[in-house]
């Protein structure tokens, strides 16, 4: 079969080697006569997978023992609520940076549950950009400061993380595991799996012990981080975690975070260079904020954009349509997107410009 | 490969035909060059799967249009919190029946969030049983009345559902889709998938429109049933829902709920008849409450029980150990458990008794 060049923003491309491995074992896991999906989550087979996934995550990101690594569900959208519910106390303020659609959703939830200060707002700007460090107004003694490290719709990314003075909380759904960073600067990191970690259906949360200790009383058991930090409380999304374990192992084989960053930077540079080469294509984000994961650009007209998406799909380049809220073209080039896909896309961009420029 | 006889309480056995179908398409979904896990949840391929899973659920259970059918995450454990959070108002009381471990967890959550009346309590009794209708003390004007239709640990099941006078809310995690019942008697039904519906990682909720209208203000967006009843709000657990669609289609091929009930009753009768045939085995539940899904029994000593579990596993009969909180033997014989597995188990019980009786 021909493997598609898949630029989906998420759920997104997975390493084909991982899919093939999962396929092989799907009906009969390691000669057990059962699928991994049919086994108790307390049994030795699944426990080994779960523990290994956590160990790999710790290894890849250099996570110290004073952080819990949790595999939850509900996505980043769920975490938008869990965070203020657990960590924004009565009479406290949480700082949020408004940088696009995802940050806005996090802010909306925090406002339902507590008091919010908008430390910076670049969300209405075009071209899209992340705030500069000196534009942020942090609250003294805030419960925490929230950032969205990468906005998939605007195609922008924090290049350096701000120092807010309070525990930093980050939605890293769309760029975790793509570049090195210092976990110890964060109180809590969360990410839906379906970009760089694995399939949809599992949410990774890293939470620091001393931040966890500050959580509110009276939170429902299942929504209390401590429940999950203490033990495997309820049935996890077994198959999704099983896939995560494989993706993380694949990533180790690519040289870990340092190795994948080099590949990611090269892929992104190829695309941005092609965009910048002529005036036909126009980057949607301010150069300093350009995302290495989601490359967003425009063509001279919406009509041409429609033609571009259609002709690209016919040429095997799938899911390039920008988000409906902003239009344009979006190429999501997460860790598992092969360099060959980006090469095919830049070639296609050349051809399309020649015909329509 | 030899397929194991799998009696796991959950995650549990899936139909082998479903696993084989999923295996075939895992890397390349219908010639698309992608796995279903790599596709946008808003795209036409996944949308068709999601809609079909809902349609099949409606068809199988005869669910009318005034119920929403939701595929959420967080399991039944999550719903223990969602229900009082959404539906137990300030100053209201909710009735709960205490019938075992699962009901107790539901009660614990409701007490964190609101006021609870225990309408009946059979949870400490041995042998285990469900309450009789005339033992239940329902509250006039209760927000709702909660039951756990099947307790997997005690191996007991409500045979007829009580009429509490307030909207009935049911945890049907371990017996939904196993027998016909009238959905219209319920305000809300919820079930973790990993027994009769599919793999772990998706939670089914059926909620009636007029009950939904009564929900509390100020609930976080992701935890508000209305968010999900209105539209597909966030990324669903794509692969788990994909598997659910296949399991439901498989169930239609088995004659739907009426067809599977006959098979389930026959399987359960074979096992209970074997238990009752001699004094060597002893049913753990009162006969009138015996679960058709989880058949729990004891042997003359814990030592013999340990030997039984070990020898059964060596003979290919897996996961027969009772829950650690109660001990004994538990054979979970959900929809996907083939009759041949139950026949193999009863034969093994004969042999084991001959050797050790």
Describe the structure.
Two copies of one chain form a homodimer. Chain A is an alpha/beta fold. Chain A folds into two domains: 237 residues, Type I PLP-dependent aspartate aminotransferase-like (Major domain) (Aspartate Aminotransferase, domain 2); 101 residues, Aspartate Aminotransferase, domain 1. The first copy, chain A, is 37% helix and 17% strand. Chain A has ten helices and 14 strands. In chain A, strands 2-10-9-8-5-3-4 form a seven-stranded mixed sheet, sandwiched between helices. A three-stranded antiparallel sheet of chain A has the order 11-12-14. In chain A, strands 1-13 form a two-stranded parallel ribbon. In chain A, α4 links the parallel β3 and β4. In chain A, α1 packs across α7 and α3 runs parallel beside α4. The longest helix of chain A is centred in the C-terminal third of the chain and has 22 residues. The first copy, chain A, is globular. Chain A starts with a strand and ends with a helix.
Give the helix/strand class of chain A. alpha/beta
Oligomer: homodimer
CATH architectural group of the largest domain in chain A = 3-Layer(aba) Sandwich
Fourth-tier CATH superfamily name of the largest domain in chain A: Type I PLP-dependent aspartate aminotransferase-like (Major domain)
Residue windows where pLDDT falls under 50 for at least 5 positions of chain A: none
Distance N to C terminus of chain A: 34 Å
Radius of gyration of chain A: 21 Å
Protein chains sharing the most extensive interface = A-B, 67 and 67 residues
Name the shape of chain A in a single word.
globular
Number of helices of chain A: 10
What is the strand tally of chain A?
14
CATH class of the largest domain in chain A: Alpha Beta
**What integer is the average pLDDT of chain A?**
97
Spatial order of strands in the largest sheet of chain A: 2-10-9-8-5-3-4
Give the fraction of residues assigned to helices of chain A.
25-40%
The arrangement of helices and strands of chain A along the chain is: EHHEHEHEEEEEEEHHHHEEHEEH
What composes the largest sheet of chain A? Answer: 7 strands, mixed
Q: What percentage of the residues of chain A does DSSP assign to strands (E)? A: 15-25%
- Count of the separate structural domains of chain A: 2
């Amino acid at each position: 079969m021909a493997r598609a060049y898949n630029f989906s923003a998420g759920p997104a491309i997975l390493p084909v080697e991982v899919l093939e491995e999962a396929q092989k074992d799907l009906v009969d896991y390691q000669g057990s006569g059962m699928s991994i999906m049919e086994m108790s989550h307390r049994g030795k087979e699944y426990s080994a997978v779960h523990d290994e996934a956590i160990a790999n995550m710790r290894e890849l990101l250099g996570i110290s023992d004073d952080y819990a690594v949790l595999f939850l569900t509900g996505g980043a959208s769920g975490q938008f609520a869990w965070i203020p519910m657990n960590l924004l106390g009565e009479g406290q303020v949480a700082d949020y940076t408004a940088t696009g659609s995802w940050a806005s959703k996090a802010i909306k939830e925090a406002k339902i549950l507590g008091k919010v200060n908008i430390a910076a707002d670049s969300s209405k700007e075009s071209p899209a950009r992340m705030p500069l460090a000196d534009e942020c107004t942090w609250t003294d003694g805030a419960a925490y400061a929230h950032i969205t490290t990468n906005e998939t719709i605007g195609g922008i990314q924090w290049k350096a993380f701000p120092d807010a003075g309070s525990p930093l909380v980050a939605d890293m759904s769309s760029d975790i595991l793509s570049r090195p960073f210092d976990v110890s600067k964060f109180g809590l990191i969360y990410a839906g799996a379906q970009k760089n970690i694995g399939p949809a259906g599992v949410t990774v949360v890293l939470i620091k012990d001393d931040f966890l200790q500050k959580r509110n009383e009276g939170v429902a058991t299942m929504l209390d981080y401590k429940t999950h930090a203490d033990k495997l409380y309820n049935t996890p999304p077994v198959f999704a975690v099983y896939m995560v374990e494989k993706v993380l192992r694949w990533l180790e084989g690519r040289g870990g975070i340092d190795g994948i960053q080099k590949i990611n930077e090269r892929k992104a540079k190829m695309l941005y260079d092609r965009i910048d080469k002529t005036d036909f294509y126009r980057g949607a984000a301010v150069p300093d904020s350009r995302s290495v994961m989601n490359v967003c650009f425009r063509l001279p007209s919406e009509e041409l954009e429609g033609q571009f998406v259609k002709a690209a799909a016919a040429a095997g380049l799938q899911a390039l349509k920008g988000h409906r809220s902003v239009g344009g073209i979006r190429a999501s080039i997460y860790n598992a997107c092969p360099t060959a896909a980006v090469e095919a896309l830049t070639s296609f961009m050349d051809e399309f410009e020649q015909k329509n420029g």
